[in-house]
Input
Amino acid sequence: MQDIINTAKKLIDKYNIGEPIKIMEVCGSHTMAISKYGLRQILPPNIKLISGPGCPVCVTAQNEIDAVISLAGKGMTIATFGDLIRVPGNNSSLQEERAKGKDVKVFYSPIDALEYAKANPSKEVVFIGIGFETTIPSVALTIKEAHAKKIKNYSVYCLHKTMPKALEALVVNGSDIQGFLLPGHVSAITGSAIYNFLVDKYKIGGVVSGFEAQDILMSVVMILKNMKNPKIEIQYKRVVREEGNADAQKLIEEVFEVSDATWRGLGVIEGSGLKIREKYSEYDAEKKFNIKKPNNGTEIKGCRCGDVLKGLITPKQCPLFGKACTPLNPVGPCMVSSEGSCAAYYKYGE
Amino acid sequence: MCIAVAQKVVKIDGDVAETELNGLKRRVSIAMVPDVKIGDYVMVHAGVAISIVDKETAEEDLKLWKEMEEALRESFKQN
Output
């Protein structure tokens, strides 16, 4: 391992032009891997790895979090991925609601949540659909199955977001990002062509990367090598094909349609979200329970999660980091989620 | 949320497969990877297999990493 790192360092030195270079990763698991393997410390000082909007829980807008929490008070069973339950809302969190006796259940997969709904027909199960293209097919599967089997007590509160338009929002007004470490498993679904606009319109290249230290270092080498002639490449070829997973794409297309979405830090981005198609509207919790997102979904005071997600500041530049905001007592989602940048910086002492 | 570890398919029953990782068995949906066969490795996300790991490429990656190591060892010897 040490040998590989040393070799990678030599290659990086070979292609390093010495000018300041910013490479942004947009996948929470990359964020964790970079911190865990200490990759920032390995790179020459002019090459900076910065985190972008890659943690699904973190990019969920504050008013969406508040809407989810208030849903718990309405007698339904809230079914969610574990990361979400500790995210603070303006007044409470799902964890606090659970402590008050509300029915909040953590599931590893939406399929398990649907099974739970089937086994408990007297309960109204609402799955909180958070996540990018990687997660979306699993949720689509449950909606299709619930529809086919006429299951009436299961629905999805769809807060899903998709990657390409968010990347564009980061660079559309000019930016100092010179390369993207592109998400491995999002791309397993979407393929890599969805990123071509970065090169065509903005002359920024990117590499779809795996999650091992070697993968990420190799991807950095590839980005540096292509710096003068930017392109989109796949380093993680053992899992990602250029065309992606056609079956998953078809399923997403069947169940969802493109909509606008609100991102923490980035605001409303046109075409960056999904909503459930009319055909499946009885599984759309937003319609079924007339969920309204509060207008005053103000960011939590002092929390700079939004700026961290845009790569404008590193977690350490937030005045709350490690003081008022720690994993035990998180102020914002970037410190809560196991994929959040602040949690990664804190855990690995960066 | 991305657990980047491949799991081995040991049993297939319609749209569901049993996978194994370090002795732990799981049931995962293979609806997204209809061509999967017993013995294949799949990447699993939220209970759904999203990609079949290409063994040749995985082996190439390993080989490349080993070559990088070898090259370095050689250069240490020479110095």
About this structure: The first helix of chain B runs from residue 55 to 78.
